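Sequence in, structure out. First:
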Amino acid sequence: MNVVYEDNHIIIVNKKSGEIVQGDKTGDRPLSDLVKDYIKERYAKPGAVFLGVVHRLDRPVSGLVVFARTSKALTRLNKMFAEGQVHKTYWAIVKRGEKREARGDTYCDDGEWHTLEHWLVRNEKQNKSYAYDRERPNAKKAILKYRVIGHTDNYSVLEVNLMTGRHHQIRCQLAAMGCPIKGDLKYGAPRSNPDGSISLMSRRVEFVHPVSKETIIVEAPLPNDPLWQAAATR
């Protein structure tokens, strides 16, 4: 387990793809339990360890996860996440899109920020979201901003900022743009990654500390993968 930041009130961990943040029906041991074990051992805590889960990452996604170590931090972080005061930046390796006439749903690789807007409908049974250009019953508006920060011949690396928080939003909207995330079979990638991951990571998190009021900025290291390294430096 890779702890990238910790103090008395919060702990930030760089999650591996394949790990679940919180327990689910699979019964697999979640990251939250591993963090509790770490805190208990490192600080010789007697009895049960308090740990609050304030947000999640999809199982095949890697990157930064913020946990609360105190009830005070948990209450305040929950409010901050709900009000959009925690700024998360994602990086994704996607199929390199075709250059087309600029519209709101087309791939642009000029290095500038572009906005995607869709209406997403979640299918609970399939655990999948579907993107539409217009509002429809049970749809929720989804907005993200992206820019191309690197590429290889076949793939682009996108930096993504979420303006809304919808189910599988990044995965669904990038696929709707014709740029499915590498390895994401559910959203149209032609093949899986060897380790079962998808090439999406929570790269950076920035927020005002809920107790000390200091600005916290943490960045996750890139995965140890030649494509990430090559694409991110071109």
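Second:
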Amino acid sequence: MSKIGIIIGREYMTRVKKKSFVILTILMPFLMVGIVAAPILLGSIKGDDTTEVAVIDATGRYAPLFVEAQKADSTRADGYTFTVTDAPLASFNTEDNPVGAVVCITDNLLEHPRAVKIYSRSEVQNDLLRYVDDLLGKKVREDKVSAYGMPELEKIISDVEADFSVQTVKWGKDGEETFSSNEVAMMLGMITALLIYMFVLSYGAMVMQSVMEEKTNRIVEVIVGSVRPFELMMGKIIGIMLVGVTQMVVWLAMVTSLFTILGISAAPSVPAASMTAEAMEMAREQPALEIMTALSGMPVTEIIVMFFLFFFGGYLLYSSFYAAIGAAINSQEDSSQFMMPMMIVMVFSIYAAMGSLENTDGPLAFWASMFPLSSPIVMMVRLPFGVPLWQEILSLVILYATVFLFVWISGRIYRVGILLYGKKPTLREMIKWMSYK
């Protein structure tokens, strides 16, 4: 086995065998689902306590609505009990009063829309505010319609307010029509872009940390006696890259298995022309079905291939920077001045990706997907919407040409900086290192 192969194997096995890697790889998919789902589930859980709400209605028109609505649909008012009373409002403003809130209506809401207030000794909960607003708003609307004296007016308004939505259909090369979803395309683009952003940052920093540790412990002085510095740098970069690829493959397998267990499989490509209005509406109303149907009409294989190509290019580009920085400095504190420009470019890349979502063919999206320092992230946002093949190839050519250039530059800096101690180099000195033979 070649020397660089031995270094790659050592870097890979050292990290893959760590308990932290195994635990994080297995738990991360569940952790991400939990972060999203837990607040929703916990927020939907209602407590056993019931808050009493007093209703004071000076008009007598609206108080019965609360009692009748609560009997008809108690789930909407879950956690609240409404009681109609004639007691003075001031009598409820005491510490020992069991009433948690007071709905006070002082005039006809049709003529005075602001004649209703909710009093409470603490902030009014959103669910109570929405319930009262919806209930009284519906009554005011009915009164406004009745005031016109037109029996069919309510039906006309309901018909006018009927739901309307524009369906999106994508044409294929042979003229076939497939169901599409702008929201799903945006979601897929941002997820893949964020994955590259996250992995490049985390694993690039891992390369720098590994180089710094060996330099600080003086182990590198022994290693470079039998291995060229460039081979050592590339071995570290490729070995750690394979760790990231392993993690992504495991996550992909776990997500696929999770979909299979839940009974959600990839939907076949459904021709939009053969889909009835009811079927398209059903796809819109069921998020899982909509996502799978929309994905079936996207170039998923192309997106996966391009994801790994841009991931490899972006990782090699930035990790070579990290390796050069790690070799040039002597402590973690010295890295900030060199890492700041890289961080600015990475932040620009993610903001350019978000800005390109509204117009993936616009100038920002095009030029940012060609600029090699931002193309791995921005191009992933564009791919679900369809990108001409020549743009994909041109972006990859520019990216990998830049990778070869910066790997060479980083290798020249690495071979000198890895054996220098004590002094923090300046940018001018690092440029001089590139000309050393």
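Remark: Strands lie at 51-57, 80-84, 99-105, 116-120, 169-171, 177-179.
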